[in-house]
Structures are given as structure tokens and as C-alpha cells.
Amino acid sequence: QVQLVESGGGLVQAGGSLRLSCTASGRSVSINTMRWYRQAPGKQRESVATIYSAGSTNYEDSVKGRFTISRDNAKNTVYLQMNSLKPEDTAVYYCNFVIGVGPWGQGTQVTVSS
User: CA–CA distance from 57 to each of 12, 40, 51, 87 (Å)?
Assistant: First the structure.
């Protein structure tokens, strides 16, 4: 049974940093493409960053140069390092498999104050 658990969110001032974690159980993150998403109040869920099985990465334009996606295969965990945070980054952040989407976790709230 696949489970995804996100953590690491919080309240931070603009310009600050956070590192989000997404730990998977029941399926390996190392051989699958993983993606971080976010959903702001009143908006649709959007893609933020992707890490492919080979290790290459891709980012949504608004976070390029500020966010970094990575993974620790031994911990079966995907990370999102977020630097230079802006108020518009405020959202609930989720991760999931890109192919064969698993059940969504509870997400982790990121709030950036101006």
C-alpha cells in the first residue's frame, strides 16, 4: 500500500528558507519520477518541481533558481529546498509519483509573510 507523508512546512518571512520532505512507503522513489505540487487557497494544484528516475530535474518558471528538488534513495525520501521565499509561494505542498499517481498525502503548509 503506497503512502506519501510530507513534512517540513511552516511560517517564514519573505526571503527565508524551508526544506520540505516527502517520505514514501510501499513504492520506491529512486526508480520513479517524482514531483512536488502546491495548491494555494482558491487555486488549482500546480506542478512545482520534478525529479526523474535518472536524476535530472525540471522546475516551474516561478521557482527556478530558488527551489531545488532532490532525493535520498536510502531513505526513500524526496526533498524540496526552498530559498528566497516569496509571499506568493504560500500554499499547501504535496508530492506524488508522476506515473501511477498514488494516494495524496495530507500535504505540508508553507506560509510566507511579507
Answer: 25, 23, 4, 24
